[in-house]
């Protein structure tokens, strides 16, 4: 138990030293355990035990593999090493060993010595130099401190050593290896302790590595080593937690569904928000995801009548028939006045209306032997103009007639002038000139006998007829 406790102290020391550097994420770590053997014979400076022929030291490397006669082996786990890779083939490590010395060359000490050592070393791997992936030879140099303890003497002072050696690791997998090593430990003052070789065989396990983004996944296994991620995506992030890694997520900062490549569909209309012009209101694909309540093909925001279907030409509103004549306002030449379909929504002058107008024209008077309309007839013509406005598409012919008194040429000219005078009055009172024509017929179309004063009075007239 005494020996074991000292070995545990040495092991704890190694682990403490190792933990000092454990936070260096740039270096993979390894731990090895095994057994060691100590041989004090093949170190040079041949010497015999005083008063005997027993050699305690031989020539350098003499009987190097004389295991039975010279090697001191403790049949238990007696070797532990912790190391880390620092780059370019170099490894630093700390080793703790214990052993029992019962052979000093060909001699045996009068009492067994307990051996304890802690050694530090820098080794250089030749694996990459020789281009191997499993055969890993290396060289090492370092220093250490050794203690020898005797049941009789109560121990001797510890002594330092300068170490140099060579070894090889056989990598069975990426993380496991079998190691063999021979280490020469040189003591500068022989009275403090013996020079010796220490051989070891171990099983090693490598672990740790660089984790640049601190996500717990080493860079060599991290598909996104510069950005913290999760194991499910080999170290790549899923920022919005929707189960789609950011590199494959069209909306990496907003949770969505795989159906829409990681984007959401807030309004549930089957159109992902980035492609939805109205992402918070359910709509139709044809309108970029915006609603069309009346299904007229115009999105509600652009529809003057969003709840009534209508053509785009009328801003989405249905065409009206304000006058109720059966002709839509868009096709109605008289949208404010009820008319007939045959007359494009405008009213047609009936026989009764035309007769009424002509009755009123009978009261239109002119100055004697002149074309000017007398003032007392203005009210009649104003009323005629008002009625004409009710039939905005009807064209009228204003006819001038005389009796047979006077020369024919004079009468024809006078009838022309009187018809034109009526036309001018009506156009000056709001009737479009394109709707009116005037013509004089003189005495050629009497409607009564010119032999009586009453007949001649009827023949001197202005009357209307319809122009097609």
UniProtKB/TrEMBL annotation:
Region of interest: Disordered: 292-320, 442-461
Compartments (UniProt record): Cell outer membrane
Domain of life: Bacteria
Pfam family, one: TSP_3
Signal peptide: 1-22
Annotated keywords: Cell outer membrane, Ion transport, Membrane, Porin, Signal, Transmembrane, Transmembrane beta strand, Transport
InterPro entries membership: Bact_OuterMem_StrucFunc, Beta-barrel_OMP, OMP/PagP_B-barrel, OMP_bac, OmpA-like, OmpA-like_sf, Thrombospondin_3-like_rpt, TSP_type-3_rpt
GO biological process: cell adhesion; monoatomic ion transport
GO molecular function: calcium ion binding; porin activity
UniProt cross-references to PANTHER family, sorted A to Z: LIPOPROTEIN YIAD-RELATED, STATOR ELEMENT OF FLAGELLAR MOTOR COMPLEX
Name assigned to this protein: Outer membrane protein OmpA
Organism: Dokdonia pacifica
